[in-house]
């Protein structure tokens, strides 16, 4: 049976959403139309000015004696109508040529800027096209899912390895660190599919790609996968190594020998070099250091990387789409994280946490989870001073 996504790039392309593609094209057409209409208006204005002397000159003829009225009226009407009409018609054309000749050297002088502009416009267009495809695919997916649920009242998913339609199932109990994401639409389904498929196909690559939005921090999500992999027995060690892509590009992989059997998380993975990632994949194989690679980064950056490096995309089967998470999803994570850490909090506490989100980038999970750790630390300090250990967060801890 044919796989729905034979490569990670194909899968990413199906996730991308149209933000401004058609609008840019329509604006370009509108601007061209406005420019054309501006030129036509200028030409018409020039013609009107050329015709104005023709209408005004016969006026003084009214003062000439009645006998000579007809002749002067006919002659000035014919001669000025031809000559003045021709001269102004030529002048705008000549004036239009002169600025064009003067501007030509400027364009040659800024060739580099033009190239950069073309590259920028090409990238904008490419992102818009990907976004449009993602929007169409998501609508199809939602419609198909609704149809399936209406037919058999059972939620299904596509196995990334076999391409078969299978029951979605549920998250295994051992994956405790991932439970806080289960109330986030799309993301929860991606996590369930990935974990269950990895368990079902132990001989396939277990590497994960976490797709975020620009400004997101999703390393904490990678850490939750790494800890869950260990709890589920997918990896042999609880060791986790984290590195930024630019740092990885310069380092020797000898530093990863201690990571054997664990997980490597690469931040801003769209910036890692192809050769270095090939080296990492080779080093992570079961016969070598046997660790799982988790890529995190901005969705378009990762899409560009996989598009340009098609030789390695088969090593990354599982994609976690978390780029759409907003305020409501962040609060689901907050409630789940507080419970995961063994703390308690009432509604006023979460209302205050919701207010604190306004000071952060929308969807920056790393920063928000770090902030929650600080709140819990203040709770522990307060309770220690009061001689209690209830792990109950108060509003004054925030």
Give the topology.
Blueprint lengths: L7 H8 L5 H36 L13 H40 L1 H42 L3 E3 L6 E3 L19 H14 L7 E5 L6 H14 L7 E5 H6 L12 E5 L6 H10 L8 E7 H10 L9 E4 L5 H14 L6 H10 L8 H22 L12
Parallel strand pairs: 3-6, 3-7, 4-5, 5-6
Antiparallel strand pairs: 1-2
List keywords for this structure.
398 residues, alpha/beta, five-stranded parallel beta sheet, two-stranded antiparallel ribbon, 7 strands, 8% strand
What is the residue-mean pLDDT, rounded to a whole number? 78
Oligomer: single chain
Strand content: 5-15%
Q: Please outline the major beta sheet.
A: 5 strands, parallel
Shape category: globular
C-alpha-based Rg, rounded: 34 Å
Helix content: 55-70%
Description:
The protein has twelve helices and seven strands. The chain is an alpha/beta fold. Strands 4-5-6-3-7 form a five-stranded parallel sheet, with helices on both faces. α8 links the parallel β5 and β6. α1 runs antiparallel to α9, α2 runs antiparallel to α3 and α10 crosses α12. It is globular, with a radius of gyration of 34 Å. The N terminus is likely disordered.
């Amino acid at each position: 049976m044919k796989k729905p996504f034979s490569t990670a790039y194909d899968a990413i392309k199906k996730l991308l959403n149209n933000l401004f593609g058609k609008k840019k094209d329509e604006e370009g057409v509108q601007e061209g139309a406005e420019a054309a209409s501006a030129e036509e208006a200028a030409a018409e204005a020039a013609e009107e000015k050329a015709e104005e002397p023709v209408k005004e000159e016969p006026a003084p003829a009214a003062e000439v004696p009645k006998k000579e009225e007809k002749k002067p009226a006919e002659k000035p009407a014919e001669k000025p109508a031809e000559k003045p009409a021709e001269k102004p018609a030529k002048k705008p054309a000549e004036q239009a040529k002169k600025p064009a000749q003067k501007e030509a050297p400027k364009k040659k002088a800024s060739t580099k800027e033009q190239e950069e502009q073309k590259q920028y416009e090409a990238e904008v267009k490419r992102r818009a096209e990907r976004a449009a495809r993602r929007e169409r695919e998501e609508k199809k997916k939602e419609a198909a899912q609704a149809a399936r649920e209406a037919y058999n009242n059972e939620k299904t998913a596509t196995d990334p390895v076999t391409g078969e339609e299978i029951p979605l199932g549920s998250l295994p109990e051992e994956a405790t660190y991932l439970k806080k994401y289960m109330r986030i639409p799309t993301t929860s389904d991606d996590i369930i599919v990935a974990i269950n498929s990895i368990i079902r196909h132990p001989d396939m690559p277990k590497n994960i790609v976490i797709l975020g939005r620009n400004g997101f921090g999703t390393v904490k999500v990678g850490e939750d996968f790494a800890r869950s992999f260990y709890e589920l027995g997918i990896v042999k060690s609880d060791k986790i190594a984290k590195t930024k892509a630019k740092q990885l590009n310069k380092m020797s992989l000898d530093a990863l020998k201690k990571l054997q059997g664990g997980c490597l998380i690469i931040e801003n993975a769209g910036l890692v070099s192809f050769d270095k990632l090939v080296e990492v994949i080779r080093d992570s194989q079961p016969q070598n250091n046997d660790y799982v690679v988790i890529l995190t980064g901005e969705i378009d950056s990762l899409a560009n990387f996989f598009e340009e490096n098609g030789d390695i995309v088969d090593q990354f089967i599982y994609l976690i789409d978390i780029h759409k998470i907003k305020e409501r999803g962040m609060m689901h994570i907050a409630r789940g994280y507080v419970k995961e850490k063994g703390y308690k909090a009432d509604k006023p506490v979460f209302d205050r946490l919701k207010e604190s989100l306004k000071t952060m980038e929308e969807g920056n999970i790393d920063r928000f989870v770090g902030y929650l750790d600080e709140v819990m630390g203040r709770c522990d300090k307060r309770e220690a001073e009061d001689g209690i250990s209830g792990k109950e967060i108060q509003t004054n801890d925030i």
